[in-house]
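Task: encode each sequence below as structure tokens.

Item 1
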Amino acid sequence: MISFPYIIWMIVFIVVPLAMVAYFAFTDADGRFTLEYIADVAQYSNIFVRSIWLAAISTVICLVIGYPVAFILATMNKRHQSTMLMIVMLPMWMNFLLRTYAWMTLLGNNGLINYVLGLVGLGPYKLLNTQSAVVLGMVYNYLPFMILPLYSVMVKIDKILLEAAADLGCNSKKTLIKVVFPLSIPGVTSGITMVFVPAISTFIISRMLGGGSNLLIGDLIEMQFLGNSYNPNLGAGISLVLMVIVLLIMTIMNQFDNDDDRVLM
């Protein structure tokens, strides 16, 4: 009985929407079964490749930046951890659109970055409406989703293990590689999932920072449901293929996680 509200919530907000997506993906405007819209997804393969590539780059950058930040947070004095965590989460308290719009102002030809570069005789450079701007927007918006899972795992690592590694002759680098990293793999996997999934399906960031020349899967889906080329069946087909791709990637990631767990055992 305790789980009954959750089951109802899951059916209404997860099962039913997924069933509707599958229904529209495999039917035409008259409700007849068809594979036409699934087959039509192939013509957008370049957009899928671009979306996966930019999402992967953003995820790697978030991991490279987020891992040392999470390690520093986990090892610092507990009195300062809450303050630093609040600083990390502070951008998330601001509206997503406002955060992205702020980067439009910074990256514009007459924006603050080009203005500063102009003071030293550089630029102006085209920073807005580029793939680099899209990656920057993804990293900025999703970096906290990498740091927090890593921190939550690292902070639980027993300090005795680090002391034991030091007693056995490991320097800081070896301790990080041979002790901390293997124990933090669950946080790495969770962080990659939490960054990659929204990054591959985003459309606000690519629209505002990438311009029309950097169309991503999220933009394509949004156009089928809300744009002039209204076609919910094709939009559902693209969404279904995207879900399958994400599930496959996450399954592969979980296999790496399980392999590391067996090694640690």
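Item 2
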Amino acid sequence: MKNAKAKGILFTALSALLFGVTPALAALSYRMGSTPETLTFYRNLLVLPVLAVIMGLRRIPFRVPWRILGTIVLVGVLGRGITTLMLYSSYTYIGVGTATTLHFLFPVFVALICRVFYRERIGGARLAALVLACGGIVFFLEGGGHSLTGFFLAVASGLTYAFYIVGMDKKGLKSLNTNVVSFYMAAAVAGAMLLYNLPTGKIVFALPPAALGLTFVIALGTSLFAVALLQMGLRYLDATTAAILSLLEPLFGSLCGILWLGEAFTAAKIVGSVLILAGVTLLAILPGSPRKREEKGKKMFPGA
């Protein structure tokens, strides 16, 4: 029993490590000539053949009813695609550790969305968690237009990811095959980015080999390995324990930003991180919390 739990902790922690490392890899790819739009496009495009091969080997049918396919495309583009683009864009303005921590406000937004649109009660404990998390973001506010732009992009990415999570839950997509949903979402986001590129021209198609290789690592690390490790971890752990362990993601992101990118992590940001993670942890351990619902969706569908 102890060995099983140890395996679950190891797998879940490794998943959080991969999710936490990829923001720093994204920032490194920018130094090689990539852009947020390019990374969002290629992250989804490059994983398509891998998913197709997996589906073929497992004999998973590609056919999906049109109504469900439309929902997958809508949730994928508006939730997953826009989330990824805004989060990756925030890295160009603020540190990856700061951006990842602010993005982790999404459980707070899930609670608020479920309260506003589905009349789910928040309760005193959840309200305290919301106050903690919202108080934490104050410590990330800095002067200067660029910092504020990055701040709002990172927070907005948490909001759109919350809509993605709620959409997965309320639209019943979490009951579908993981690979099928991932395949069509990745295809939809890649197609949407091509349309977005027509008026903007921000996608760099001729990436240097090193940048393209790094992008492929990001795609596989997030959309395949990190998700698979999380699923393996959930075989041995309950959702609450896995949810709390997933909070290692912004901590790993901050550490990679400091070690690889030379980012400064001020005392104010440390206090803000503690408050945000305390609020999210409180949401995670509450019975029937939004974070638990998110974890059920996340174990089936890759995040941003």
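Check on item 2: The longest helix spans residues 2-31. Confidence is low (pLDDT under 50) at residues 289-304.
End of task.
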